[in-house]
Design a protein that fits this description.
The complex is a heterodimer. Helix content of chain A is 0%, strand content 49%. Chain A is mainly β. In chain B, 35% of the residues are buried. Chain B is built from no helices and nine strands. Classes of the chains: A mainly beta, B mainly beta. At the A-B interface, strand 4, strand 5, strand 9, strand 11 and strand 12 of A face strand 4 of B.
């Protein structure tokens, strides 16, 4: 089955701990994205990556870090510097055709709760 | 990217067509109209997109007015599983990966 997987579905951490959220895709997509969603709100972009070993900050990158060592993987680390980390985190990916990035497909999300 | 305006909520009887409107009066020539939906506590699901022609796929139809200032997503035979928040997004076709700007969307409730 082709798709985007995120693990775990639910994650609980103590305040002050770093935590890494996994995102894997087997769609051979070039670009990958991380969004954050708070209750009743739209999605906000944290980081995105167009190619391996390259990534750019989105609108709310402070307190987060990413890596893109492989095309299919784009893990997100929520550091202790992120002031309000409790949220629903969504990973997405998109292909590239004739120089244009196509529609984004989303994973099922990880709900992070910091206690 | 141009702003979009959608009604906050709509109801639809199961088996009937659900017509979800979206206003994007400031859309520019190279901007596409995308529709996504999000079922509670799941990731958004891509539905359809178009530039100026009407589009249809296995999930829905997208009707874009001739002036491109508004569009309608049509779910031809709504089921209870179509209950979700539907987002209309306008985004330029671009050579740079960029964000999707999700507004507050339309909460569609499909009822028996």
């Amino acid at each position: 089955d082709g798709g985007i997987t995120q693990s775990p579905k639910y994650l609980f951490r103590k305040e002050g701990q770093n935590v890494t959220l996994s995102c894997e895709q087997n769609l051979n997509h070039d670009a990958m994205y991380w969004y954050r969603q708070d209750p009743g709100q739209g999605l906000r972009l944290i980081y995105y990556s167009q190619i391996v070993n390259d990534f750019q900050k989105g609108d709310i990158a402070e307190g987060y870090s990413v890596s893109r060592e492989k095309k299919e993987s784009f893990p997100l680390t929520v550091t202790s510097a992120q002031k309000n980390p409790t949220a629903f985190y969504l990973c997405a990916s998109s292909s590239r055709t004739s120089g244009t990035y196509n529609e984004q497909f989303f994973g099922p999300g990880t709900r992070l709760t910091v206690l | 990217d141009a702003k979009t305006t959608q009604p906050p909520s709509m109801d639809c009887a199961e088996g009937r067509a659900a017509n979800l409107p979206c206003n994007h009066s400031t859309i520019s020539g190279n901007e596409y109209v995308y529709w996504y939906r999000q079922i509670h506590s799941q990731g958004p699901q891509y539905i359809i997109h178009g530039l100026k022609n009407n589009e249809t796929n296995e999930m829905a139809s997208l009707i874009i007015t001739e002036d491109r200032k508004s569009s309608t997503l049509i779910l031809p035979h709504a089921t209870l599983r179509d209950t979700a928040v539907y987002y209309c997004i306008v985004r330029a076709g671009t050579g740079t990966a960029s964000k999707l700007t999700f507004g507050t969307g339309t909460r569609l409730q499909v009822t028996l």
